[in-house]
# Entry
Amino acid sequence: MKRKISLLLTVLLILSSFTTFAFAKEIDKDKFGTDLEFLERVVYFVLDNYQYEVDQEDILEGLYDGFFNVLDDYSVYYTPDEYSAMLDTTAGEFVGIGVQITDASGQIVVITPLPDSPAMNAGIKAGDIIKYVDGYDITGVTSSQASLLIRGDEGTSVKIGILRGEQVLNFDIVRAKVATSIVEGKIMENNIGYLKVTDFSDNTVELVEKELSEFDKSNVKKIVIDMRNNGGGTLQAAVDLLNLFVTEGPVIYVDYASGKEDIYESKLREQKYEIAVLINGGSASATEVFAGAVKYKNEGIIVGTNSFGKGIVQTLYPLKGGSGVKFTTAEYFSVNKTPVHKVGIAPDIVVENEKIDLTKYPVFSKTNKSAPGTVSLDVLAAEMILKTLGYDVNEPDGVYDQKSFEQIIKFQGDNLLYPYGTIDVATQNALYNALMKHAQGDIEDLQLKEAIKALTK
# Structure
C-alpha cells in the first residue's frame, strides 16, 4: 500500500524545526489554509494513481526543495548528508583522502590533491581518473556523489582505483582530517610575498597569520594576495582577515530584511604590508567583501577581472533530523555603502589570463581505435589537443594524416605509452589528462605578473 502523508504535519515540521518562529510579514491565513488543503489533495491523488512506489522521505525533500527554490539562486534545502558536508566545508576541514575533483565526460577527474593530504602522500596526481571506490565502478556519478563515497570516518581505509594513461593503479588510503581552507605562502622575486587564499573558513585567518609570521622573518613588506576563484565563505572570516591588512574604520555594511543594519569595522591602526589583490569572475561573496574594502579605502591594488557580484548574505539553519536550509537574509555594501550585488568589484588594473575552453574539444569515444587514414571526431579531438600542447600538427580537420600520425607517436613516447601511432583508449585518456593539466597550470600567469609589476613600481 502506498504511504500517505499529511501536508499539514509537513508544514508544522518545517516551522517547528527553527528555534524561534515569527511571521515578519502578514499572510492571508484563510488562503494559506485553502492552498495547503488543495496541495494535500493533489499529493493524495498522485499517490493513488501513480504506477510506482514513492518514498515518504522523497516527498518531504521535494516539498522542501520546491519551497526554497522559489526564493533565489542562493537559497537551498540540504539533506542530512549534504548539510553535514556543508558544515564541514565551513569549518575548513573534512575527513577524507583530500582531493579536489570534477566530473567530466562521465569520469571523475582529480583537479589536484590537497597539500599534505593522504591522497598526495599516496601519490595521486592531478589528471588522474578515479575509476573505482572500494571496488565499485563510479563511472557516470556526479562529483558530489563521488565525494560522499570517498569520505568516511577518520582512520578508516578506502580503496581507490586510478586510471593514469594506460596504467591502472590501486591505492589503499587511510582517511584523515583534511583542510579545505588552503593558504599557500611563498616568497617571490624582489622579496615579494605571495598568499593564495582558497576560501573564507573558520581557520583561514589562523593559516594566513602563520604565513605572515614566515614573511616577517624575511622582512617581506609587499604581498600579492591571490583570491581568484575564491567563492567566499563566512563573513566574519573576511572581516577578521581585513583586520590584518586594512586600517581602522567601517569595511562592510549589512542590511537585513527587518531593517536592522550591522556595521563591521577594522581596528588595525597602521598598514604593515603593501598589497595587491588578484580577483576574477570566480571571486565572490566574502572575497568581494575583502577586495571591496581594499579598493574603496585605497589601501591596495586590485588586479585581474571583474568579480562575480554576489553581495548578499545567506544564513544556515538546522532542521530536525539532521537536514538544514540556507537562505538569503541580508544584502551587504562595501565601504561608503558602495553596492556589490550584481555589480562586483572592478579591478584597478584589468588583465585577462589566457583561457582554454574545454567545451570546444570533441569528447573521445573511448571505444574506437583510430589508425592513419581514419576520419573521425576522435582524430579531430586528438589533433586539437596536440596543437594546444604545442605538438607540430597541421590545422585540425579530423583527417588522420601522416603528420598527425608522427606526432601521436611522439606523444605516446613522451607519456610512456606504446608508440605505434594508433589513437587507442589509453592514448585518448592520456591526451585528455594532458589537456586538463595544461589548462590548470601550464599557461603564463599574466595577472600575477602584473601584480608583481605594480608592487615594484
About this structure: The longest strand covers residues 324-333. The chain has 13 helices and 19 strands. Residues 29-49 form the longest helix (21 residues).
